[in-house]
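Something for you to look into today, if you have time. Just paste the record in under my message, thanks.
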Amino acid sequence: MRAMIASVLAAMVLAGTAGHAVAEDGGGSADGVRWHASCATGPDDELGSKLDEAKARCGEISVPLDYRDPDGRHLTVAFSHLPAKDRADRIGALVLNDGGPGVGALGMPLRLRDTLGQYDLIGMDPRFTGRSTPLDCGWPTALHLRAAPTRAAFADALHLSRDLADRCSKDKDVLPHATTANTARDMDRLRIALGEPRLHYLGYSYGSYLGMVYLQLFGQYAGRFVLDGPVAPDRIGSDLLRETGPANEAALRDWAQWAAGQDATYHLGRTPAQVVAGVQELISTAERRPLPVGEHRVDAGVLPVMLWMLVPDDRPEGNAMLARVVMDLRAAARGESVDPDSPLMALAGFLLTGKESATASALAAITCADRATAVTARSAWPDIQRHRRTEPVFGSLVRNVGVCAYWPTRPVQTPVTIGNDRPALLITATRDTRVTWDQALASRRVLTGSRLLSVNARKHGLYREYGNACVDRTTTEYLLTGRLPRADTTC
């Protein structure tokens, strides 16, 4: 969930199948690929049709559910394969990951074919996501973490987390195997199935961690690796966001300065302080009575989640999106109807219905399988109170109890320890609200052969997304030539 709500919704909707129980194909090896006659699964499959138009192929491989039992139960891993435009200049296979976790990458080759056409572009749907063997707990909401500005909201959050975890109990035989390490093993099975001597890789956000794990486990087969938004590997898991409150509060103030300069358009306040005070008043209003947004009700536990989803983007369109949502929330607080075409309506539908249950379930399963949470009902509320003054909007969200506290299974393997000198290009924004600057520096320290490319920006995900010519040029040059910058670089 790295971009504005429009792109978030597009990524989630196009990720693939939802609403299926966990299935298995009865076994088999990863020695080959089952190719499909068409990427489109039917006349309404927009993504599949676009892949077919681009001359891509779609297939799947069989992988073990548990690599400790390679002859046991198997899953399928789906992927798209867009061949290099010019076979004479072909570099190799570039695997793509769009982050999440829980988001498929089947459509990513379409975004990058014009820039990286010397590669075979591979959009792999990680296990339990997209068109791979699915995992769907049947959740009525995409929320798996709520804010807790009040004691009542904290109780609501605990109830939600317990309920969602209970709904996943039916799949507890597969939940422990939704690890990033297993996905990295699946990637190498795909490399073998495609007959590639090595894999090149571009991963965003959570995908950066997946890339680190592959480098650690299969470094001898790793080619050119780009990790955009590098997650500190020792923080991966359900507590990853716990220390990001200050960065999100700073981002809100940064946005408020922009909004104050646009007061004639959005009427949110003539000074940054007025804009922030207006946001805090909205939360207070939602504490007293949920805000009506169409058929949905936005309470004080949900409203900070909406702000959190939209604040990490300082581009004009990102700032404008957040301003429009806050403006419509203020109208809802006055009892006015929200335009059905408003991004607020789309955001409420995304968060407060079960249509993205499969994506949210996979996100939680992967997160909870990688590392157990240290946050409990006993520890969370005092922690929220200690940071109430410095993190008034986002502290009760990022420090709250999540679904992993009640997860029906415990991790069965410890996370992979990262530390190697394999070359990689790390890309980060210094004011990133998801993967903070200190996390990028931590990643740089354990990947000693890497180079860090940084930008003073408030954006999560930079290459070919933010519009920084230096980032795009430097990254593309590395991917096409294999030459890393001589030193860490600031764009």
Remarks:
- Residues 1-30 have pLDDT under 50 and may be disordered.
- The first strand starts at residue 34 and ends at 35.
